[in-house]
Amino acid sequence: MRLYLTALKPTDSVTDGFLPAARALGCEVTILTDRPERHPSAVLCDVRDPRALIDTIEHLGRPDAIFSNSDHLQTETALAAAYFGLPGKDWRACAAAKNKFLMRRRLMQAGVEQVFSVRLGPGDPVPAQVPYPVVLKPREGVASEDVMLVESGLERAVAEVRRRRPGEALVVEEYLEGPLRTLETLGDADGPRVLGGFGTTLGALPHFVEERLDWDPSDDSQAHVLAALRALGVGFGACHTEYAVTAGGPRIVEVNYRVIGDHCDFLLGDVLGVPVFEWILGVHLGGSVPAVPETSRFGTAVSLVADRAGVVRDAPGHESVAAGDVRLWHRPLRAVGEVVALTRTNRDYLGVIRAVGPSRERVEAVVEEYRVSRPWVVE
């Protein structure tokens, strides 16, 4: 079987997740990218242009599957899969999920949610009247970059973001106050299956840095979230949806039409005890989602966030630790000697710890012991 994987920069999800999974499934993998120097044995292609993507694949040989885990390439990859008549996502759903203004408009038109949202093009005036507090964000941003809570002075905040992002469209929307959660789904030709969900802990406002995700699949909001995904046309393949449980009920924050990131994709497989990356590729190869097992395990992913600018003086390495009935993994994202400049985004992560065990209490104890004994030192 021949699998084409579209990518931009290398990621752990692809390198340590999807590529080994593809090999386990017996696939011959060709990576298509605009950065071939950063991927082993990759083929140069303008992967942001679906016409170039289709042309390159036709030249290289007919595919059995075309897949991407990149936030930025879902629409283009879906169009290429559709051209070759392969299982894939609806490109319109990919576009609506990626574009935060389109997402709000689709949900409003379907009568699923009514959330105040305004799109600001590069030259558009800033509205004088908004229902403060509001959240300002790039229309197609990632990693919480330039996402901020604005309680007054929206014009100043917009000017600040526009200086960093000239020519980009922004979105202003009402602040959805309440616990932040996720729903993880995987769909085949028969529709999506719920894999589980996480509770999200954020850093201090006005920024929205995700500091921790804890396995917590029990929630009464699943029906609402699944209705929102149906309204967007999202169903096939992996999807990571973030939502807030507000006083008025659950409200979608954003829909990421790919598997959850920041090593929670590995954590998802650890908690469920399944080869989640193989499951995801399997549906793109025409297979079905297996039965999702029940689990009593608890898992957490703790992002180690820099609290100051400076130089990394000491840090734990890439390692796995077995502490009785708890398994812990640490993945450094920075190197000793590297300069850290605070951005107040997910780019401030130094490393990530993920751990799985029989109970929350046991897992938290092992994580805390590891953090105390193996600290990151930034000076």
UniProtKB/TrEMBL annotation:
The keyword Ligase is annotated on this UniProt entry = yes
- Answer whether the UniProt record assigns the keyword Lipoprotein to this protein: no
The GO terms describing molecular function are:
ATP binding; ligase activity; metal ion binding
Q: Which UniProt keywords apply?
A: ATP-binding, Ligase, Nucleotide-binding
Q: What SUPFAM superfamilies does the record tag this protein with?
A: Glutathione synthetase ATP-binding domain-like (SSF56059)
Q: Which residues form the ATP-grasp domain?
A: 104-285
Cited PROSITE patterns? ATP_GRASP
What is the residue range of the signal peptide feature? none
* Protein name according to UniProt: Biotin carboxylase
